[in-house]
Amino acid sequence: DGNEMGQEFWAGQILAHVRRFEDIFRKWSTNPSVVQVLNHQELSKDDFTRWHRILAAKGWAAPSWPTEWGGTGWSAVQKFIFDEEFGFSGAPLLPSFGVAMCGPVLARFGTPEQKQRYLPRIYNGDDFWCQGYSEPGSGSDLASLKTRAERRGDKYVVNGQKIWTTMAHHADWIFCLVRTDVDSPKRQEGISFLLIDMKTPGITVRPLILMDGRREVNEVFFENVEVPVENLVHEEGKGWTVAKFLLGHERLNTGRIGVSRRNLLRLKEFASRQPAGGGRAMIDDQRWRDRLARVEIELMALEITNLRFLDQMVRSGKPPGSEVSILKIKGTEIQQALTELAADAIGARAEMFVYDDPSAGDAYVSGLAAQYGNFRKASIYAGSNEIQRNILAKAVLGL
C-alpha cells in the first residue's frame, strides 16, 4: 500500500526469520533423510517417524496447531518463512494426513475426549494416519461416495471400499468419509467423518504397485468393520462440512513453493553440466532455456500471489477462502513442468528406474524418472485442477 514503515517492518521480520531457519536447516543438511529427499529417493516409515520425532523434540512438528496442543504460537509470517525454508532445504515433508489434516480437524471439530486421546499422539508421531476419501467411481466427484456406515447401538458397521489410499500399508489409523444416511435429498448430506483403527477386524489393505515398482497407494476394503460411535467427528451427517475444512488445509500445502525453488536451482545446476551436443551444455540450448525461463517467471508470480494471501491473513486474521485454489493449480502445474524439463535435460537416461544403485553414477539422475511419474498425480489430489477451476469460477468470479 505504499506504506514505507510497514514495508520495512515486513522486510526486517522476514529477514530475521529467514536467517534463523537457514542456519538451523543448514546444520541438518547431512541428515540421511534430507539426502534421500534431495536425490528423490523413497523414504521408509522409519525414516518419517525418526524425522517426525526430531521435529517434535524441537517443538516444530505442527507449527500451525493451537499452542495448547503443541503449536508454536508463531505469526502467519513466521509460519510462512518456516514452510518455505523447510521445503527449500530438502527437509522431508511429513506425511500430511496426521499433522496437517486430521490434527486441525480434531482441533476444530473434535470433542474434548477426542482431542486428549488423539492430538498428543499425532503431534509426537506415535500414530501413522491415512486418508479414506476416494473410491472407485468417486474421486473428484467425492460426494458420490458409497462406503456405508450403519449405526447399530453404540457402534457403526462399515462396509465399502476406498482406493488410492496413500500409505495405508503403514497406517495405524484412517479417517474416513462414510455414508450414514442413504436417503438424504442432497448427496453432500448424510455423509459422516469417522476415525477407524486399521487393526480392526474386517479391514483389508491391498497394494497398488506403481509403474516404478514402488508401493505408495493402496485399496482398502471394509467388511462389517465395527467402529465405536465415539469415533464420530462432529455431527452425524455433517461430514461434508468437515471434509471441506480439511481439503482447505490440504490445498494450502500443495503449492510447495520452497520445494519448487529448490528443484529449479538443482535443475539449473544439472543443466549447466549436462551435454546437449555440439560442445554445449543443456543450459545453453535456447529453446529449453526459454521454457525454463517461463516456468521460473510463473514460480515468481506464484510466490507473489502467496505473499498476497499471507498479507490478507495478517490483516484479517482469517485464512483465505476459495481463492486458495489458485495456489493448488499453479503450484502443481509448476511442479510438473519442472520434472518435464528435467526429463528433457537428461534425455534417454530419464527412462531409468534405479534406486540406491552405485552403477547409476548420478544419484540425482537415477531418482528423476520416479519423480516425474509421481508428480503426474499432483494436479489430481486434493481435488483435481479442473475442479479447482470450477471452484474459482463459482465462488470467486460468480459465474
Description:
The structure is a single chain. 48% of the residues lie in helices and 15% in strands. It has 399 residues and is an alpha+beta fold. The strands form 3 sheets. A 4-stranded mixed β-sheet has the order 1-4-5-8. Strands 2-3-7-6 form a 4-stranded antiparallel β-sheet, with no helix packed on it. It has a two-stranded antiparallel ribbon with strand order 9-10. β2 (148-152) and β3 (155-162) form a beta hairpin. The longest helix has 31 residues, at 286-316. It starts with a helix and ends with a helix. The model is unreliable at 1-15 (pLDDT under 50).
How would you concisely characterize the structure shown here?
Helix content is 48%, strand content 15%.
Helix and strand topology:
Layout: H1 4-27, H2 32-38, H3 45-58, H4 76-89, H5 96-109, H6 112-124, E1 129-132, E2 148-152, E3 155-162, E4 173-179, E5 191-197, E6 203-209, E7 215-228, E8 232-233, H7 239-252, H8 257-271, E9 275-277, E10 280-281, H9 286-316, H10 325-346, H11 363-374, H12 385-396
Parallel strand pairs: 1-4
Antiparallel strand pairs: 2-3, 3-7, 4-5, 5-8, 6-7, 9-10
Q: What would you call the quaternary organization? A: single chain
H-E string: HHHHHHEEEEEEEEHHEEHHHH
* Largest sheet geometry: 4 strands, mixed
Structural class determined from secondary elements: alpha+beta
The number of helical runs is 12
Distance between the termini: 29 Å
Which shape, going by the Cα principal axes?
A: globular
Strand arrangement in the largest pleated sheet: 1-4-5-8
Number of strands: 10
| Average pLDDT score | 84
Please report which band the strand proportion falls in: under 5%, 5-15%, 15-25%, 25-35%, 35-45% or over 45%: 5-15%
Helix content: 40-55%
